[in-house]
Amino acid sequence: MKNYKHILLLFLLPYSLIAQDSTKDPLQKYWKLRVNLSTYVAQKEGIDIDPKYIYYDFMNLPIGIPFNYLEYIRLDKYQYVDVDNDKLILPAYQAYIDMKKAGSIHNAIINIKSSYRNKSTQVYMMNKYGDQHAEKPGYSEHHLLTTIDIRYCGENTKLFLWLLTHAHEYGWIPSYYFRKDSQIRKEAWHWRFVGKDAAQWYRSTWENEYKAEIIRLEHI
């Protein structure tokens, strides 16, 4: 049996290389590492994902692939803040507050419905709602303290329109809305803080899909 964790640690997440990549074009940044991640996912998960849909967030964790985050992250090294009866790590919290303030000026009221989930909570969610509505334990972005479900943010709302137009400016992306590989239904309310660099990549990569949704929402 292949030791996928060993392969990943050696070849797929060399943080020093990530930090040293000075490529300015976000569509080309970390390209070799993204190709490796694509190969890894094909071998481990049996899913083929074009490297152009794969990237790294500000924590050097993958975006755009099924990934067992709990095997590789140590959240105890991050400072977190209590917010809306939930919690976020400090950079995500600061970006959330900035986005919330900006939205309120335009009557886009942003409040957190839920955020962090531990493994036990994710087991409960999957057992209750099934794999069309919840990721496998370990794979949920809600484990990261960087992901929120936004209250009253349906796919036909003005709030969703505002977020699609502006959230990337604050480092947030609708990471389960445009994913090609995910079995999870589209979730307009699910937003992950990835940092401004990664959010710019995501917005550029899915530009046509963003524009189509924005046009659709403007005509509702």
UniProtKB/TrEMBL annotation:
Domain D-alanyl-D-alanine carboxypeptidase-like core intervals: 92-196
SUPFAM superfamilies noted in UniProt: Hedgehog/DD-peptidase
GO MF entries: peptidase activity
InterPro entries: DD-CPase-like, VanY-like_core_dom, Zn_M74/Hedgehog-like
Top-level taxonomic group: Bacteria
Record's keyword terms, sorted: Signal
GO biological process: proteolysis
Position of the signal peptide: 1-21
Pfam name, any one: VanY
Protein name as annotated: D-alanyl-D-alanine carboxypeptidase-like core domain-containing protein
Organism classification: Bacteria, Pseudomonadati, Bacteroidota, Cytophagia, Cytophagales
